[in-house]
Design a protein that fits this description.
This protein is an alpha/beta fold. The chain contains 9 helices and 5 strands; from the N terminus they run αβααβαβααβαβαα. It is globular and about 55 Å long.
Length: 228
């Protein structure tokens, strides 16, 4: 009788060893504006990241979700954080925001409704703390460009640099990784925008990503995915 029980348990053990349990995918949400809204389209940076993960043999390990809405600023992200991010129980959230917080100060159809610096900083801190409280990690991105001239000739370069510095400070204060797209863009443009043109290198209009820009951003973000 003992032998029968022993061999039965042994058989069950062998079956369990040979049974492959499904691996829980790491859910990554990209929270942002129109740049991120377009990123789920063919050639967009989120779509390209999926391809990069496939090529690295990790495509089945991740679930990438875009949560970008055109025109969004930091206060808009705060309003929809619960519905578009926290409710989906992410493991990692990329916050890629800041362009509209600056750009909307001068765009005719936004009536100067940029985000004041104090509200920008407080809003980023609020987003990060709520995401962390929900158990997810955060990568904060600096806003990349409003114009591709690299000699300080774009109309809002000075302000965009100020807001990028705020993002850097917030990332440091919260001890989270910073994906410094502003710095990476400017470095790339210094080497590759020899005619100092306003658009057509990493963007098609000075703000929204061209195919090269999407590929560039995907490359910048890939490192953080592989560290998850």
């Amino acid at each position: 009788m003992k032998s029968v029980v022993y061999f039965s348990l042994l058989a069950v053990g062998i079956l369990l060893l040979n049974f492959t349990f499904p691996v829980k995918k790491k859910r990554v949400i990209f929270l942002g504006d129109s740049i991120t809204a377009a990123a789920t389209e063919p050639g967009g940076y989120i779509t390209l990241l999926s391809g990069m993960l496939d090529n690295a043999g990790k495509g089945n390990d991740f679930d990438l979700i875009g949560a970008g809405i055109g025109g969004n600023r930091v206060p808009d992200l705060q309003k929809r954080l619960q519905k578009d991010v926290l409710a989906k129980k992410p493991d990692l959230v990329f916050i890629y925001i800041g362009v509209n917080d600056v750009w909307h100060f001068i765009l005719p159809d936004t009536n100067g409704k940029g985000t004041p610096k104090d509200q920008y900083e407080a809003g980023l801190n609020d987003l990060i703390k709520k995401i962390q409280k929900a158990g997810a990690k955060v990568v904060l991105c600096t806003p990349a460009a409003i114009g591709e001239k690299h000699r300080g000739d774009n109309a809002q370069d000075a302000m965009l640099d100020e807001y990028s510095d705020i993002s850097r400070k917030v990332a440091k204060d919260n001890h989270i990784p910073l994906c410094d797209l502003r710095k990476a863009f400017m470095s790339y443009l210094q080497d590759n925008n020899t005619d100092n043109v306003e658009k057509g290198i990493l963007t098609f209009d000075g703000v929204h990503l061209s195919p090269s820009g999407n590929n560039f951003v995907a490359g910048q973000m890939m490192t953080y995915l592989l560290q998850l």
